[in-house]
Task: structure prediction
Amino acid sequence: MKARVIVTLKNGVLDPQGQAIEGSLAGLGFGGVSGIRQGKVFDFEIAGTDVEVARSQIMAMCEKLLANTVIENYAIEISN
Amino acid sequence: MKARVIVTLKNGVLDPQGQAIEGSLAGLGFGGVSGIRQGKVFDFEIAGTDVEVARSQIMAMCEKLLANTVIENYAIEISN
Result:
């Protein structure tokens, strides 16, 4: 199965990288953009056929490695 | 409008970061995972009400700053 995990900063956590991108965009003339937050995306194949088993395995992967759950949220998408 | 841009490496472009994550996951006991590719996600607000105008503006932003189109693809999602 194909899986995608999107890791984003929690609300209230400062995102200096996002602020830098926003400043650069404004400098390039894209002034209508605000509140940029940068996150990470992981695409991978996961073995097995049971979506719920895969989901719980991916949740464990997020908790242990892919996301820092103190400051980050994660969302899981699985497609066959 | 809320917009999300997902930037991923093109097929065939080496992803050492993804390989490192795959190795770490295997070390943690998550052996069923393969072909990990890491990408970036940008969430932001964009001014205006016309989705097509916003989309063309975001495409220009991607071409100029958010993605390196030599080695990266980008996908745009816009929601009101």
